[in-house]
Structures are given as structure tokens and as C-alpha cells.
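User: quick one - fold this with S-adenosyl-L-homocysteine bound?
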Amino acid sequence: MLEGKTFYIHTFGCQMNVNDSEHVASLLLKEGARPARSPEKSDLILINTCAVREKSVEKLFSYLGRLKEQKERRGSVIVCLGCVAQLYREKLLKKFPYLDLVVGPPQYQALPLLLNNFLTEKRVLTEWKKSWVELPIVPETRESPVSAYVTIMEGCNNFCTFCVVPFTRGREKYRPLSAIIEEIKMLADRGYLEVQLLGQNVNSYRDPETGAGLPELLGKIAEIDGIEWIRFLTSHPKNFTLEMAQAMASIRKVCHQLHLPLQSGSNRILEKMNRNYTKEDYLEKIDLLKSLMPDISLSTDIIVGFPTETEEDFEQTMEAVEQIHFTNIFSFRYSPRPLTAASRMRDDVPEEVKIDRLIRLQTKQKEIQLALNQKLIGQKLRVLCLGRSKKGNLYSGRNEGFQVVNFTSPVDVSNSFVEVKITGCGPYSLHGELAG
Ligand code: SAH
Ligand code: SF4
Ligand code: F3S
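Assistant: Sure. C-alpha cells for the protein plus S-adenosyl-L-homocysteine:
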């Protein structure tokens, strides 16, 4: 049924979902299907889903609810992919009977076959795979022509007590280093300038063939001509080693930028989260990183209102944030997730207290970011321009620290490296002009 049919993919969730959607689009293109601009105009609608927080699932359910009418009007085939597909399986079909297929991340390679026979095949496919499954990717499906996501591992063995990801992505599976290098060489040949290596826990990467770890992988990628910036996420603080910090500092192409989720500044809460580090361990790693790379840009994830979190625990998170000066924070109110250990604890922090803590944290962080950004005014920064900014006639890109830079330019500089003179800022972005 795929030849000549149109498809539309709606992606919720993290960068790995974005990259998975690029792979799924490649699989469909190879079968002769064509991308459509909107769901209304497509024969096949695929929704790639995220289960990480209660809110992500609520958003999905409201999206799926709206597709009922489309199903009735146009008879489109509707497919649910991603982490919610893996987690809820048959439950999704019960709740949304007009879904045709539910396919979890371990089974994407079966999608073309399933879609070609979907009326006779079973409608839920979520069996785990034990090792890495290589999926094709064609250039047309990548979101950017210069910056690419490259998945190097999938799954997680850590079982942080709040996190559903080990149940949606399974245990850690590592992609062979040779396949990663081959993909990045192909990207470089096509003019890609930046790669972002993806995995739930990239610091535990081990090449299944040679046992080489992330520092060696970074070294090999850096040898590829054309690739100028290398980033990776996400790093778990307990697996982030001295060797990694040294690799970041010594391999010129590796950006001085790191996302290192702290989650909480209270050792009591960190222990209940099963994070396997203390606030002191974390701060020690930050000091090391700052001593090796004084210009490093750090970002983090914080959860407020984890079960039993007291005002004093939260104050310790605030103190850590005030001390470290992150360039960006992703902060969330705790919500219990199915199958997790924390979902068996009482979710005892009242919602209004969670909201109050989140606002206090975000207000503090906003001040810190504004002050950090103001220090950059007057400087010239190297920026990878990714195109026009969402609003206005500006160009938009990222600096090495992964901060958003919006700037004016008399010529179209999309998809290239430029020098930008910073002339102003807000807490969430820098503004400037193309430096002559
Ligand atoms: N693999 C990554 C990302 C996990 S999900 C890592 O280990 O950091 C991204 C973020 O969502 C987490 O870092 C955490 O801050 C947040 N998160 C995960 N589960 C959550 C939950 N149940 N409630 C609120 N936030 C959660
Ligand atoms: Fe979830 Fe923890 Fe694994 Fe990250 S390290 S994916 S937060 S279990
Ligand atoms: Fe969400 Fe799955 Fe990514 S739960 S954060 S889409 S790994």
C-alpha cells in the first residue's frame, strides 16, 4: 500500500525521537511513499510519542483525540510510534480504537512490511531487541542540511526511580563504531558541519566490536574532514569521567558545552532517585570541567517536588543552581510514571508547592542567564546559522555554547558558520549583527 501514498509524521519528545522520525521517513521513502505537508492531506499519519512526563502523554492523547475526525473523513491509516506505543501497547488501541498500528522503537524496521500488510498483520508490535538494529537514513529526511543527529546508543540501565525511559527504550544497546563513523563520513561529504551524538546515557557507550568508549569515538569523529563541531547528550554525572573531561578539553572539534542533569541538589533526594552520586561529586566534576575549559557552557535538568522533597531539600537545589551558573536549565514538576519505583512512593508534595518551587527556580535561573548573557555583549562569537529566526527578519543559529543567537545580516548566511557581534540579549537568547 505504500507506493505513491502520502505520509505525515508528527513528533513529540526528545532529540532521539526526532532522529527516529528521520529514520522512519527514510524507510517510507524507500518504499515509494511521499511526504505530505499536513496531516489533513495524507494517507498515512504517524505519531512519534513521548512518555517521560504525565504532561507529554496528556498532550498526545488530546492530539490523538483530534485525529478521529480525520479518520472518519479521509480514512487515513493512523500509526502510533515511540515511547508511549512501547509503554501502553494494547491499552492505546482500547482507548483510541481508530488507531491502526502501534509500533514501539525496537520494531521500526518492520514498519514497511507491516504497513504493506497492515490489515492482516497484528496491530501491536513492541518486542524488545537485544542488540543494535541499524536503520537506513536518506539525506532528504534530515531536518537540517548542516547539523545532524546521530544516535550512538539506545536504552538505559540506570533505573532512576522517577524515570520511565528504561521501560520504553529497554536496556542499553550500542551502535557499532564503524557504522557511526560511516554515517558521519557520509554527512561530511554532503556538507554537514555539526553532529550531535544521541543516547540516553552516552557516557556508557562501548563499541560492541572493540570495546572503545566515547572518548575514542570522539577522537575518531574529529578526524573526519568537514565536521567542525561535535556535541553529545545525555551524560549521566556518575558515568562522566576524568578521561571524558580531558577528551572534551583536548579534542578541538568537541564543543565546550555539556548537558549534565543534576535533578536535585539534596543528597537525600538524589539517593531516593537512585542517581548514584552526591551533590559534592557533581560539584567536583563541574570544578574539573571549569578548570580544564574555563569557557564551558553547562546546562542541566532539575525535578522539583519529588516525593518527600522538603523546603530544605529544595533550597539545596537552589544553592547548587546559584553556585554553578548554568547557561540553561530544563526544569520539571515531578509526576509519577507507570512501572517506576517512585510511582510506588506517595506523591506527597502538593501541586501548588511544586508550582511555587518551579517558579522560584525558573525566576532565579532567569536572572543568572541574563547576567551570563550580558557578559557576552560586545564580543564576536562563532555561530552556526541554521536559517531564519521564527519571528522577524532575523537569522538564527547557535554558538559553541549552544545558546540561541538571533542576528541581522545583509546577505543570506543560512547553513554556514559566521562571526556575529553580540549587541544585546535577553535571558533566553543573544542578539547581534553579522560581523564584517
Ligand atoms: N536520559 C536522559 C534524559 C531523561 S528524560 C537523562 O538521563 O538525563 C529528561 C528529563 O526529564 C530528566 O532528566 C528529568 O529531569 C525529567 N524527568 C524524567 N522523568 C520525570 C518525571 N517522572 N517527572 C518529572 N520529570 C521527569
Ligand atoms: Fe531515565 Fe535515569 Fe536513564 Fe536518564 S539515566 S534515561 S533519567 S533512568
Ligand atoms: Fe520521551 Fe522517550 Fe525521549 S520517553 S524523552 S521520547 S526517550
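One thing worth noting: The pocket of S-adenosyl-L-homocysteine (ligand 1) is lined by residues 52-53, 162-163, 165, 200, 234, 236, 261, 263, 301, 303, 332, 334-335, 337 (CB under 6 Å).
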